[in-house]
Design goal:
Elements (H helix, E strand, L loop, with lengths): L18 H25 L5 H29 L11 H34 L6 H23 L9 H32 L12 H30 L12 H10 L4 H16 L12 H8 L1
Helix pairs in contact: 1-2, 1-6, 2-3, 3-4, 4-5, 5-6
Length: 297
Amino acid sequence: MVKLASAREIRTYGPRLARNRSEYVNAGLYLFATIVLLGGFLAELSQEPKSGLVILLIAVGIIALVNVHDLAAHLAGIECRLSLVACDGQLGLVELAVPIVQALGSLLVFLGILFLFLQAEKGYGYYKLEKHALNLLIAGPVFWLLGSILNSCQIYERADGHVQILQHSIHIPFLAGSLLFLVGAIMNSQEQAGTLHHGTELLGGSWIWLSIFGSLLFIIGGLANVVKVFKMQQMDGLRLEKLRGGAHEQLIRPREGHMPLLSEDLERHRRRKPAEEVQPPAPMRPTPYKDVLVGQA
């Protein structure tokens, strides 16, 4: 459910000229999906809750596609060289794991809602899907919460306060919203235990209201992500410096034909050190006796 909120420049959304536009579309599409998600949960409070399920399917499907797009963009940024994960732990935990986990969580929620919709639409013969639907509605938010935690594992060599504020304004709403979805799904499963409800009746009021508040937090996080994308592009990265020796640097090194910055600094220091060493003073030779006499004369 939660979109990747990375500020690293390793992402590559298509060709160079279309990169900024694609990132704007990516962030805007996620924000639109969260608004649709909120509308779907509000529709569950109406007289036609099945229409709310259809809206939820559309919203969750869009969010899953956005996360898959994030994954494809990061794979393109490293030229699909998965071996670089060994030299860049943050690449594996954030750039690759987060989109995969979030897309998987969205898929599980999509299937859970789809099972409920089929049972509500077809009726008898699909009752066996009800238990699986409730379990999927719990498993999906678990992956969202895990992805939100991994999404916070971003470390930089140097980042100013503006970047840190933008990042936390995205991480905190996503984390809190995922937790609300998980708590609501667990409470709904406990409420429905031992009851004879079917279809949309399996979605209790606690699940709907907690999901509404979770969707509001996702909208806040999505809006903050749009602001971050705009600021990062307009202000040239906001003095953000990635960790040295990462995957992106390993790719740039052979292209530019020189060593990474950290290695260059060490090499320059080694070359400068012998020249800066102070030579010990040469021992003074004794002045010959004739020179002393000539000097006195």
